[in-house]
Structures are given as C-alpha cells and as structure tokens.
Amino acid sequence: MSPKRVLQALTDQHLLDSKQRAVIQSVEDNRLFSVHWELRSLLYAGILLFTTGTGLLIYKYIDQIGHDLLILALSVVCAACFAFAIRFRGSFSTARTHSRSPFGDYALLLGCLLFLTLEGYLQYQYTVFGTRYGLVTFLPAILFVSLAYFFDHRGVLAMGLTALISWIGVTVRPLEFYFRGNLKDMTVLLSAIALSLVLMVVAIGLDRQRIKRHFTITTLTFAGNLLLVALVAGLFNFENRHLVFSLALAITCVGFDWYARKEHSFLFILMSTFYGYIGVTYLVFHYLHLREEATYLYWIVTGIGITVYLSNSRKIELSKQKE
Amino acid sequence: MMKAYNETWVRNRYILDQAARWQRQGLLDEAKMELIRAKFPVGFRDSNGFIEIGLFVFSIVAISGSYFLLATFLSRLFDVDLFYHFFNIGFGAGIGLLGGYLINIRRYYRSGVDNALIIAAVALVCAGFIGLFPNNLPLWQYCLMGLPLVLAAIWYYSDLLLTLAAFVTLATAIFDGILELSFGKQLLPFVLMTVSASLYVIARLYENREELLYWRDNFILLEWLSISLLLISCNYFAVREMNYWLLDKRPAEAPEIAWAGLFWFLTFSIPGVLFYLGLRQKERPLLIMSAIGWGLALAAWRYFHPLFSLEIYLAINGLSMLIGAVFLIRYLHVPRSGFTDQPDDESPKSFLLSTELLSTVQATSGHLDPKDDLRFGGGEFGGGGSGDRY
C-alpha cells in the first residue's frame, strides 16, 4: 500500500486535517532514498574479502616475500586502523557511545582482523609464542574484549568471545549440531561450563552496574550457547554422568526461561526449548527404547505441548506489557 | 470471496505500519496515533520472530508424528496405491481445516503454527493428487499438475513459503519441459530469462495495487526470486556448467558453448541494465541484485580468464569494495539526486540491528579453529555488526 493511499485512507476517516495532510504529503514527496545499510554491507564485505585475501596471500607466498617487509607492512596498516579508530573514538562512557567518524567502527574491525593475520604470521614464522598455543588465542581474546569495551563495538566483542571460547579448545556450532573441539574430554567440557558460567556472571554483574548494558545480550548468547552445548554434549558422551548432566541441563533451561520472561527476550526461550528438547528426547529414546507407534506419539505429544507452551510465553509477555 | 486471513486487518496493518513510520518521523503525535489505532483495528495475534521459529518447527514435529502414526495404523490398506494417495489428500485436507480453525480461533497471522499447517496441508494434498496419475510421466507434467494447487493455496493463504514453492515448481517445469525439445538446451537460458523478466514486470506492476494488498509481500518476494533467476540464467558460467552437466558423455572440462560472446555480453550487461533501472526507479531489489550480479559476472570472468591467483582477486576486490564504499559514504553525506547515506525506516535495518539475531548467528556459525589460528586467521571470523549510527 503506497504512502499516498494510506494518507488518503486517514483523510477519508477525518483523522488528518488538510494542513497535516499537506505536511506529510510534502515530506513523502521529498523523501530521499537511503542506501545507508547497503553501503555498510559493501564496506563490511570489502573488509572481509580484503583480510581473507591478504591472509591467504601471505600463507601461499610465505617463502617468497621478505618477512621483515611483510611484518612491517602489516603492522603499519594495522596500527593505522587502530590509530584512526582512536582518533575518532567517542568519549568513554559506561553507556552506549559512538565513533565520531562513520568509518571508526570499520577501521577497528579491519585492524582486529589484520592483527590476527599478523599474530598468526609471527607465530608461524618466528614461533613467538613457542609451544604455548593457548596464548595465541588467549591474547586476541583479551585484546578484543578490552577493545570492544573501550570502543563500544559489539562485532569486536563477538570476535573476542569467539577467541575466548576457542581458547579452551571448543568450537561451538550448534546450527550444524556438531561439537568441534574436544567435548568428549571431561576436562575441556568442564572448562567450557566454567567459562560460560564466569562469562554469564560477569555479564549480569556488569549489567547490574549499568556498564555497557547493550553488550549483555551478546555475551549471554555466546555463554548460553556454550553452556547448553556443553551440557548436551555431556549427556551424549558420558553415560555414567547422565543424572548430573540432566539435572544441570534442566536447571539451566529453567534459568534461561526465567531470565527470558524477566528480560522479555524470546531468543533465550527458544534456546532453552531447543536444547532442553534435544536433551529430553535423547534420554527418552536412550532409556525407553520406544517402538514405532510410541515414537510417533511422543512427537505428537511433545510437538503440541511445546507449541502450546511457546504460544503462552507470548501471552505472558503481552500481559506483562499491559501491566 | 473469503480468504484465510481477515483482509481488513491485513489492510489496517499496512496503514498502521505507515502511520507508525510517520510517528517516528515526528509527523504524528501519540494522541493521533491512538485515534488511528482505534479506527483501523488489527486483531491478529502479536508475534515474535524467535517464537515463530519454535512454533513452526514444533508444529512440523507434531504434524509428522500424527501423519506417521495414522499411516502406521492404516499401513495394511496401503497395498492398494489408491488408498495411500487418498490418505495423503484426506490428511492434508484435515490439516488444512485445522489450520483454518486455528487461524480463526487463535487469530494467527504468519505466526509459525499456521505456516507449518498450511505448508504440510498443501504438500500432502499435492503429493496425493499427483500420485493419482501414472508414475511414468515426465517431471514437468507433475510440476504443472501441482502448480495450480499451490497457486490456489497462495490465493487463499498468501503464504510466502508457498510462493517460493510455486516459483521453484514453475522453474523446474520450464527447465524439464524445454529440455525435451531437440533444441531445448540452446533455448533454455532464453526462456528462463524471458519468464523471469516477465514475472518481475508483473510483480512490479501489481505490487502496489490496493485490491491486491493481501498478496503484497508475495509480489515483493516474487521480485527478488525472479531477478535472481534472471541473473543466473544469463550468467555465462551457469549456462556453460549447465550445458556440461546435461551432456551424455562428459569430458574432463566443460566445453565452450554456442553463442559464447552473447552470453558474456549478457552476463555483464544485464546487471548493468538492472543497476541503471534501479537507480532510475529507486528500487532496492534491483540495486542490491545488480551488485550481486556484477559480483557473479566478475567471478565468472575470473574463473575462465584468470589473470592472477584467487587470493589476489580477493584482496584487490575487497580493497576496491572498501574504497568504493568509503567514497560513496562520504559522497552521499550530503543528499545527491535523491540518494542519501542517512539511515531510514525502509532500509533492512531491522535485520542488521537485531543484535540478538546477529550475535546468535555469530555464536552459531562463527568459528575459530585454534590450529588454523596458529598460522593465519584472517577471515575466519563471523565478525560483524558495527555501529548502527552514522
């Protein structure tokens, strides 16, 4: 429905007088076509292509390029990016801040990606970190998380958290439902759980202190996914610990459900529902050895049950909003 | 005639959306907005994207369970094929009725549950109906049998997934049907181009008709789909590879195609024309898809005539995109020829701004392999989402 028609409909119902209508009409007639997000996407895609290209380029021609020259060039560009970001950084505040340049955030992103290339190159060529491989991911993790808070950049925060998670040797990709890394190893599994709990406590603590509250959801999403994946993996991989992991998964799911209702964030309801369902379904089929008909009945009952439950979450939300 | 969803509510929804946009621009105050809401009520159940995903998935789980349970009980009857096909049609119709009932009672509108029921109903009815025909007919005939059913369902439900299904069915029918002709292989790209361009024109013509408001989103989706098909069917790489896969005996490498020059010309000129039209008409789908078309064209050119290695292309193209974007952002700092860099309501910012979604995508798809990282980690991140403000 074109704005013109809407304007006509409102006028027909005597909801707008002729003056209001004329104002809106003139605003609509002079409306500009915004390409803001298209250009940002182009910029972002350009950064990703460029850093991927240079990364691969160095990897391929590692023996043909002068090392010192390469390190120098990478360092200069990387430093220039950070310098640009610092130059146009908004004043520091615990609330949300913005770079004073439209390019500040992107320069920071480019700087961080180039830093990874530089770091990887240094490690490959000169093994600067020796055999302390953990440090190779821990360093960017700490650096990126600090930079994210310093510059108020959620993209860099996400990169930092990804690095932090991979530091303990886990790669979380629930979309593929594939636990890369070593969630079959109890030490790694417990580290993942510990890290996610620490991250969640820190995130909620900072939220309480009103420090960069818009970061809370990003951190909680990362930590929550890690925790839930770890618990489900525990259930799958450690048969003798089923009781502990089932209880922990149940408590986590209920916790997320409670938090989601409190904070009106449906993503967490969805997360707890999906992981909870996977866990319960696994246990049911593991212990009950359902026959064909019972399996189908299980789908029907759980499918309808969860649908009703999810529909009602919406109702609770609405009634809360009305209050 | 009656549709599945209340048409007045659908219309009021568009009016309220537009009025809310004006309110955000400061053109309407809250008191006025209240009056507008009272005058144009929308009775649909409020919805949330994340809950919709869950509702869709678990509705499909419940429907599958019911289908297989009932099919297991009736399996003895299925020795006669006809029973099985009628079972599908009957079950599909039942699901459809249930969908209609829930849409009325629970006031669903694209809320996940109704989408799942509609998709399942149409899929089962189509499968049952097609099953009634002999099973040695060519694929395109089955597609053409199913298409009217899907189109009728789109007319009734205006469902977007069904629109996608109808588009794929039509494209498959054309693909398979044309190839039956002796000169089909040569003709196919041109037919696909003609059909997709025509569909785009039709969608553009009818998209803003008030009497067709119920299907507005379907027309917009059709625009995106038809431009995508147009770009693929004119692309030299796609045509050459398709030609290769249709050969009875495949040599090691895809052979040169007839009218290669023409296809190279189309590969580059069609995105150019789309870009020009997009600029003239200020059409977002045209502008975005023309940029993607150019990307595809350059990738095709690089594939057959590589000057440098892939990494160099990535770096050079990335850098030129970066420089181009920086230049345009600076250039459009002041509005020029009706274009601006200031964000507005129409931009797809609801997606890009949704930090929850963004961080989930990052959390679930981003990966950083510690081992890779020992060497070069550039580009291994699903980073993203920079500042949202100019």
From TrEMBL, chain A:
Keyword set includes Cytoplasm: no
Domain spans labelled DUF2157: 10-155
InterPro entries: DUF2157
Residues that span the membrane, as ranges: 41-59, 65-86, 106-124, 130-151, 156-175, 187-206, 215-236, 242-260, 267-288, 294-312
Keywords noted in UniProt: Membrane, Transmembrane, Transmembrane helix
Entry keyword annotation includes Transmembrane: yes
Coiled-coil ranges from the UniProt annotation: none
Domain of life: Bacteria
Pfam families assigned to the protein according to its UniProt record, in alphabetical order: DUF2157
Protein name: DUF2157 domain-containing protein
Species in which this protein is naturally found: Larkinella rosea
UniProtKB/TrEMBL annotation, chain B:
Segments traversing the membrane: 49-70, 82-103, 115-133, 139-157, 164-181, 187-206, 218-238, 258-279, 286-304, 310-329
Domain of life according to the entry: Bacteria
Compositional bias per record (Gly residues), positions renumbered to this chain: 376-390
Annotated signal sequence range: none
Region (Disordered): 369-390
Keywords for this protein: Membrane, Transmembrane, Transmembrane helix
Name this protein carries in UniProt: DUF2157 domain-containing protein
Organism: Larkinella rosea
